[in-house]
Amino acid sequence: MKKILAVTFLILLIDQASKIYIKTHFNLDDSVSVFPGFKLTFVENPGMAYGLHFGGVIGKYFLVIVRVFLIGGMVYLFRKWLQKGESNYLLIPMAMIFAGAIGNLIDGMFYGLLFDSGTVYDPSIDRWIGYGGISKFATAGEGYSTFMRGCVVDMLHFPLVDWNVPESFPLIGGKHIEFFKYIFNVADSAITVGAVFLLIFRKKAFPNGLEF
């Protein structure tokens, strides 16, 4: 249990500290090059990992509820796995996924209450609308949105290929090619890395097959 709590706490600390710093020091869409192939680019995401979203506010409520049930289910599984003495090859990657889910849940549930500005949904045009300026912590009752309507803060950007194709190239001339264009955060990274570890060490994580 101590290892699970330690991994969860460390990831949440890094995740929330990085999000709060970006939110309170960057304008929306600001981008700063850290080194070639890595930028800090501030975007807000109303939906899932890596900028995916759907269904406006209803879709957002649905995602928050799904995350709550996912986290509750993982708590149940952790208790069961600990009682059975499962190995760290299972517990540590699952703790990473657990922490990542909590990290993004915090944003979606509470950031609309905690900060004075943020991306909000406009039903008249069925779009999420950004904002200008740098956010500050809101006084009580003056957040940019309501409970469960906050947006996830993303900032990790790895454009390893960022190329404007010369017009002389056939078929793709004049186009802009970027890889990897998705912008994500520490919580997303923890979920992805945890899932990759489970895949790599699946035989040690699930020596008797997948059991719930």
Can you put this structure into words, describing what you see?
The active site is at residues 154, 188. Pathway: Protein modification; lipoprotein biosynthesis (signal peptide cleavage). It is a single chain. With 212 residues, this protein is of the alpha+beta class. The protein is built from 5 helices and 8 strands; from the N terminus they run αββααββββββαα. It has helices at residues 2-25, 56-84, 88-114, 186-200, 202-205, and strands at residues 31-35, 38-45, 120-122, 127-129, 152-157, 161-164, 176-179, 183-184. Helix 1 (2-25) runs parallel beside helix 3, helix 2 (56-84) packs antiparallel against helix 3 and helix 3 (88-114) runs antiparallel to helix 4 (186-200). The two termini are 18 Å apart.
Tally of contiguous helical segments: 5
> Spatial order of the strands in the main sheet?
1-2-5-8
Q: Rg from C-alpha positions?
A: 19 Å
Q: Low-confidence segments, ≥5 residues, pLDDT <50?
A: none
- Overall geometry: globular
Membrane topology: Multi-pass membrane protein
Enzyme class: hydrolase
Pfam family, one: Peptidase_A8
Main location: membrane
Any chance you could write out the topology, listing elements then pairs?
Elements: H1 2-25, E1 31-35, E2 38-45, H2 56-84, H3 88-114, E3 120-122, E4 127-129, E5 152-157, E6 161-164, E7 176-179, E8 183-184, H4 186-200, H5 202-205
Antiparallel strand pairs: 1-2, 2-5, 3-4, 5-8, 6-7
Helix pairs in contact: 1-3, 2-3, 3-4
EC number: 3.4.23.36
Pfam family, one: Peptidase_A8
Protein name: Lipoprotein signal peptidase
